[in-house]
Every structure is written in structure tokens, then in C-alpha cells.
């Protein structure tokens, strides 16, 4: 497969009809990486988002003190950098979108497409439809790429379901719905949920269905969803959705019922080799946009670790961290549901206002916690891998891996690590992640992840809070 950096069209030199392009293939990567590194370490002003309009500005820290974010380098500067995943040569106007969709896009304050949007959209919208396996780093705008595809492909005159989009969690499905509603604001589109407790009565006549695989299967079983007119099947977090150990069975059951010529669109920041091979079978002849393993980390996210002496010490360090640091919003990831609840209880008892979210909570509770966190009413969220993927809250500037991510078999899990830390550093913003290790084993697990990804994880002392504060403050700026 070719690694051409040229526009999608020029990559047709590939032998097969298939197209595979790499998003990061400049000769000058080091130069640019160091430039972005400088920008985000605080030596130069930090980047804070589209048009400098960052919701974190003026937000309160976990301790109630004000968090001020300097906004001197604008998204426009990053988007002009050819080696940034946010760079593009085109404008949205040149991507072949309907003017009603452009209105929606511009109202969301998107001025320029990101690299994945610029490259994927023309391929996704080309006729006849082609399958797509699209990869791009966390927070680089994959959602808009597939949402605009759904909104473009649907025939609004036909009141039948035509596009289905599945995600691994209800929280992510709800977030995608929000983007569909915003981008589709000037179209007559109708979209419905297929998530638990979404309470469908009669047959679905909406154009777009967004949900999770288990609930969608239930709806199909109850014959509430006609599949014959479905022409687009989107899997967000596709590697997770196809993973045999995860949601693979449920997703494939649905796929088998769809019309044969249905366009398959698979997006994720990660595609481990074995899942990618499987994805290629699920989405044959797909155009592919892919990244190398070493290109997966986002430069704006500074990665740290704190070496604790014991499980008890780990908690003390966490509590101390929240006493000392002024953090915008943060997510603490733990391995188990009961740990999430326990740590939340203890932090609350220590005077920090935190909440937890996990998969055993009922739908209403989950929605309420997430809505409050999204609105900024809650600053610290303790959770499991249930929301490790996709959740986009721009004000989150710190992610803590209280437990190092492991697979179900207890093996270090670099994909989940990337998705977890990718909850910060969204679309050019800066953020920090801190890994907590507490013994030889957890240190080795973290190092295994570090080696796989070829990233730097810097040690922050746990016995010198002044020094720790200095390092982290700079990263959280
Ligand atoms: N062209 C654009 N201009 C400005 N902001 C954008 C643009 N495209 C996307 N965004 C914003 O960037 C953020 C990240 O986008 P999105 O959630 O789609 O990332 P993603 O690639 O799906 O990440 P993940 O892999 O974590 O799911 C969102 O807040 C989105 O609104």
C-alpha cells in the first residue's frame, strides 16, 4: 500500500482499486513535532481551541479556584501546519457538501477541515459508494467525517431508515446524536436512538439510527426497524465494535442482516493488526486511511507517571494532587466498578467534589452524571473503560490512569491507553495524563505500553510536591 501524502485523488497510483494513505508522512516530522512540542510545553503559549473560544476559560478548578487559559496561539496556526493532523489544503466548501450541511458546519465554528475530514469526505461521498476504514488520532474530527456522510447520503424524501451508526457506549451514541442534530440543523433529517431505555413504540421511520449494538439487536428482533433501505452502516470505534472479545458478535449479527451493497464506514484512532485484517473482510475493497503505531499519540498531550509505594499511597497521592493542583476538568480511569465507587467515596470524604460513572448504573443516572460533567457542573469524574473512547469534552485537561489499562487477559493495553488519554488534548488543545504505578508489575505494564507506542512518559516525584506541582502546572497550562 502506498504512503502517499498527496491528495486522495493522486494516490490512485496504487496497484489495486483500493486506496491506502498515511496521514503523517512528511520528511520534516521531527522539526514540526519539536515545534508543536514547544508550543504545548508552556515555553510558548498554549493552544486553546477554535478561534480561541475555549469553554475552559474562566472555569473553576477542582478546588474552586479560577483556571485561566492563555489563548495566544490559535487553531488556525496549527491548521496551517502541514504535519498536524488538523491540517488541510482544502476548505469545507471544496468537499462537495450540500449548502445546508455547510451552514450547519460553519455554525459549529468549524472554519477548516482537519486532515481526516479533508481526505475521507471526498472518498466517502464518491459514487458509487465505497467502504472506508479510516484511522486518525483521538480528537481530530472523525465524527464530523462520518456524520456528514450520513447526512449527505440520506434521501430525505424517503421516510425509512437509511443510515445506522453504532458506538460502544450510550454516552458516545448520545454525543454522536448531538453532532448529527447540530450538523443536520438545516436539513429535514430525522434521527432516533437505539440505546437502552430509548423506548421505541412503533416501527422506526427516522432516516438515521444511532445506538449501541445490543439495543439495536433488540429493536431488530422486535421488528421495529426495517433494514431494506439501509445504505450506510457506520461503526465508530470500529476496532472495539468488531473485536471478538468485545462487541464483535453483536455488531456482526446486524451487519449480516443489512443489504449486501450497504456502504461500510469504520472509524477509529486504533486498529490493532488482527482487528484490521478482520475489518478488511467486513468492509471489503475499502479505501483505507491509516497511521503507523508511532504516529498515534497526540503531541498536545503530555504524559507523566507517579511512582507510588503501595495501593494506599496511590490514593494518598491522588488526594494530595487534587488538593494542590488547579485542574480544569479531569477524568480518573480505574479498572473496576467498585474501585470507581470506593475512590469517589474517599475523595468526597477528603473534601473533593467528585462523581463516578460505570456500566452497572441505570441509564437515567448515567445520563444525569454525564450531562452534569459535560456542562462543567462536575469537575472530576471517576470511571471505568466504559467511556474511555470517543467522549469529547474540550475542557478536560487532565486524565489520570489510576489503574494502568489492561486487556481482559491482564495484558498491557496500549489501545485503551491511547483512547483514555485522548479524552484530553482535543483538536489541538493541550492536556496532561498521569499514570499511577504502585509496584514493579504496574511499572512494567506502563513501560510495555510506552515501548509499544514509542512515547515519552515522564516521572513526576511523589515526595517533592513543589517540584511535582511545577511540572504539572506547566503541562496543565
Ligand atoms: N474542522 C474542525 N474545526 C474545528 N473543530 C473541529 C473540527 N472538526 C472537529 N472539531 C472538534 O474537534 C473535537 C474532536 O472531534 P471528534 O470528537 O470528532 O474527534 P475524534 O477524532 O472522533 O476523536 P476520538 O478518536 O477520541 O473519538 C470536537 O469537539 C469537534 O467539535
UniProtKB/TrEMBL annotation:
Name the keywords, alphabetized.
Answer: ATP-binding, Helicase, Hydrolase, Nucleotide-binding, RNA-binding
Regions of biased composition (Polar residues) lie at: 12-23
Where does the UniProt annotation place the signal sequence? none
* Annotated Gene3D superfamilies: P-loop containing nucleotide triphosphate hydrolases
The record's section on InterPro entries has: DEAD/DEAH_box_helicase_dom, Helicase_ATP-bd, Helicase_C-like, P-loop_NTPase, RNA-helicase_DEAD-box_CS, RNA_helicase_DEAD_Q_motif
Q: Which residues form the Helicase C-terminal domain?
A: 317-466
Chain intervals with Low complexity compositional bias: 1-11
Q: Which domain of life is it from?
A: Eukaryota
**Sequence motif: Q motif, positions:** 90-118
What is the main EC category here? hydrolase
Region Disordered, as annotated, extends over 1-25, 37-62
Q: State its Enzyme Commission number(s).
A: 3.6.4.13
Catalytic activity of the protein:
ATP + H2O = ADP + phosphate + H(+)
* Annotated GO MF terms: ATP binding; hydrolase activity; RNA binding; RNA helicase activity
User: Which parts of the sequence belong to the DEAD-box RNA helicase Q domain?
Assistant: 90-118
Question: Hydrolase among the record's keywords?
Answer: yes
Q: Which residues form the Helicase ATP-binding domain?
A: 123-289
One Pfam family named in its UniProt record: DEAD
Q: Which family does it belong to?
A: Belongs to the DEAD box helicase family.
What is this protein identified as? RNA helicase
- UniProt organism field: Coemansia biformis
